[in-house]
Design goal:
- The protein is built from 30 helices and 39 strands.
- By secondary structure, the chain is α+β, with helices and mostly antiparallel strands.
- The strands form eight sheets. Strands 16, 17, 19, 24, 25, 26, 28 and 29 form an eight-stranded antiparallel beta sheet that branches. Strands 30, 31, 32, 33, 34, 37, 38 and 39 form an eight-stranded antiparallel beta sheet that branches.
- β20 and β21 form a beta hairpin.
Length: 1203
Amino acid sequence: NSGFTVSAWLKFDVNIGHGYHMARAMPLFDPNGDVVWEGWANYCWMLYAGSDYTAVYTKSTELDAGGIQLEGPLLRVLDKQAPESWQFQGKSYRHVVWSVDPSNIDAPLRVCIDGVCTGSDDSIDKYVRKTNFALPAAADCGQTGIMKTYDSARQELAVNESRIYLNRRPLDDWPMTTWQTNSKYFDRVLTDSEVKKIFESDPDPEYPSKSLRTERGCRFGSEMKDDRTFRDEFGNDCEWYFMSRIDDPYVCLRSVRAAAACPVACGSAETCWGSSQESEQQGSSIWPMQMEFRSKGKWGTTCVGKSTTPEREAIACAKNMPNWEAQCEQSGGQDCEAKGKNWIANCKSAGYQDCEAKDCSEFENDRTALLDCLGDRTWMPRDGVEDDIAWDIFLPCRQIIELHEPTCDWDDSKLDEIAAAANASQSWSINFWVEGLSSTGCLEPQVRLINDKGGTFALLGGIGRLIPDGATPSCNAQEEWYTLDLISQEIDGYKRLPPCELVGNKIKSGSKHFVLFGQTKDGYQLNFNSNSVSEKIDSSTRGPQPISADKGFLRVINVIGSVRLSPWIVQGSFPEPSAIANMEYAQRPVQEKKRGPTMPLQEQLRQEIPRDTSSFTEKLMLLGPPLIQQTRSAEDLAGCGQYFENNIVQAVLSRGQQIQCASPFTCPGYTARKVYTCAGSDELSSPFFGAQPEMIDGQKQYVEFLASIADSEVLSRPSEEDPSVDAIMETGNFIDILTSSAAITALFYSNDYGILTQLTVQFDTQQGRVKASASVKHLLAYTGDGLTVSLVCLMLCIILACNNGAITVRHWLQERKVRESRRTKVGMRASQWDAHATHVQLLDDPGDHQHHDIVWLIFPILNAVMFSLLMWTRLTSASDVDQLLGKLTSLSWEANDGDDAWLTVKQDYVGVYSEVASYIGTNHLIDTLFLITAINVLVRILQATSAHPRIALITKTLVVAMSDLVHFVILFALVFVGLATIGTWKFGHERADMKDEISTMMTMFDAMIGPPGALELGGEEDWLYLGFTLTFHIICFLFMLNFILAIIIDSYTQVIKQVRDSDAELDIFTDFFAIVATEFHRRRHKWPPHAEVLEHVKNTLTQELVTAEHLCWDGACFRSVEVAESFMNFYQKYSWLTPEPSEDEDDKTKVNLDDLAMYHCLTLQKLEQIARFAKADRAEDDPAQATNGSSNLRQNLDTLRTL
């Protein structure tokens, strides 16, 4: 009851290994006092391991208010959430300990994995979950709350009937599936040290003299080393097994020797819980690509971080030169002055002239003066002045400038983070791959690492020295020993610490070598390929120089030798041996394939390529640099929207993490967004590529100079996270998956013709494909004769439009007047009059009053407005073009004041470009509206042709064919759309011209108008495609196209027959002269408008034949009978307006009442004329008699009319 501990060694199956290792249970009692075994309710404590967690379950010593047993404290260690290398993987035995201690109120339960216990180590506590820890725990069944409710008899029975379950829980559930050994039960609580002792020294049952942990248990990171001398019976080494596991995961299972000798390569051992995770820290890359170094002098080449300059570092070097006399005085030494003089003397005797520190900051921007100021100043160790070799530790300050190679300067933006980690861990490492450029074999690369003070803190070189290099790839470094030296602190005299030495590690062309070196927590280590050597910190010194917590940790890299180096990886820790082996194994196959360029990057950048030039002969000039602009969609933060699509992204992400980010490497920036970013429906408006969007053509667009994107690999732009800090951006990322459309635009000007041109190449990515199109828009400066002719033509158009409007108003007023007065009767045959009146009004009468609504006045008004607007743009075009050209040519392209000068110039140019684009766009819009106006005028002209039967063929044919055409269109649409849908569904994934229904219909229409078009019958092996094209051509071309031709021809035949059968039909020229004659007589005799006469004849008179008297009604039409008679006499010359005798089938002549009435009317008309003539004659002789005679004659005529 005072507590217990259970210890076991377990090896879980990686997929299904889990279960209850041990459980204690006792019976319950029903109301009748009988023993009851239910299962879960019977347990007193249980121990679980595997699957997702390792746990201890207990019951409490208390009951709830209802007398029900309470669950006690529960402790779980979520081992699946721990680093992957710590998790149970079924490769090694792992030591697991569970303990219950009721006397420890704060921590009654404990779990230990590989000697690391909860409550005492943060590496396991961070994965602990506690439940019910406010309740006291029962160490055994006798302490549970329910036991206290039993009488003594039941208590004794419960204890006697209690059970211990091994590898399962009550009642025989959840059996543990695992290998296990050395399971032990202690009737007391073991201390952490006792648990640790069992973990380290528990004997292996198969090898009692050996520890189970060392033989078959997990290994710490420092123990994960492969035996590089191992060879199996086929001669395969550990690296071969590592590469073979990629294709055959079980290759190591077939060789026990390989699994034991190559735990890293075979992954045959698990890492103990709590092992160092420093190897998993993300490093910072120095150089983004493979670099090739060729010595620029005696001491090779220097590279600096991009946040500094070689001048600044050289100044720091000279300024911080050690003053050993001052240092002696500060440390309380004796005879410091004499020692200082001796030191200066030795410096002079070594050939150096400048042996004291000096601040040369004032000459930072004057290279020549700065080099003179620096002189030959070089740091020197305090105690090594008599040893010539010791002088090689430090690089002469001026050499930082003279040996500087700009192409190898590196991005040190992440170095602060790395340095802080190194300062915290008191360790750091650098690893890279190297290939020699000499075939003779050299001790390379020799390296100096220089901090922000200007002194060397670590170096790679020969034994006790650095060997100066020649200027050719045939190196001078023939030393057999390769060493790593760390430099001591100033108080110890900046001397070399005992080196890490390796022998026989020369490199040559064609072979890659892995190098890793750095400082560990208690020393330093050098790895060259499979060889490794380390040194402990010399107890006689204070160790290496302190590690700076910022990027001052590493400012200058000095590479001596002609070598090809991979990107350096700098880490703020020193990796475990397993991580080092994994790096070498995984990277070697890739590195072996990498070879340098024929021409090194340095030479490429310095090479001057001749540029072909010729005089500019075209009549067009480029006004400014072309732009590349894009519109972007915002990222869909909810994912791709489709379950299937999200699964695909997650699958690719998971696979990438397994391959590229497996231990010991991590990829914290590798997320689903890096795999595939789905576009949302909103438009992006936040900064992108270091710039805010510009408003161009009514859209937010991101703009860059085309040359910047096309001719550069990287650009320096303000960071999107912090605009005050510049970031290096790859130009290849300017166009990405969120780009909805992109365009390349340029402005040109033709000086000869005064044309400002905007060329645009548009790329649309919205349809799953990139669709390219080009457009050319012009802004013409009208001047001289061109402007005059244009203005005259537009003025005539305005006058005609106004005249058209006036005619429309006049006819509308006439029709209104006609509708108000319909009184006069007609005496001519109305049907014939109507037929003739239709064409005599060709230019004078617009037709039926129903078409003379005032609404038609809108069209001439709009036409006049459009012509006026176009004339205004013509007048101002020259000044507009001149203003825009002035703004473009006045831009200060050579401005270079400040780091952001380029941004100001770009913004100014984009602003002017936007204005030019706006002008050109407005001009293009006006031209488009003018095109619509011109089409409208043309349609009106075609409509006006309906005034004459001979030229009304188009309009009349369309009217006659309209019904048939409508029904044909319905049929055609069904067939055409149906075929387009079928074609898109079947062939859209293969052909871009059938990607959607609209594209397919356009392709089919082109093929129908000009067969076969894109739908050729030959050259395709696909019978389905052949059947589709054949069906289309038969139905749409042979049938449908001929159907529409038949409808039009039939309608035209009907129209032309009607024209020829018309009695009133005359050719257009005869009718034109008739109109002129009609207008002459109308003005001479003052006839009323034809519309009024026509309205009266059609809608007022009921007689078929009219007389002149019927054409006068209330004085509103013809002013007198004489005027009406002149009108009647004029039209009597047209034969179809006079009546003709009708013929009967039986009789040649048949007189009817109509004919009699007609003759009667004509007779009366003649009698009236005779009476007027007689009256006139008598008036000359006797006026009184003439009056009486006329009265008598009038009475006789009235009597005749009545009859």
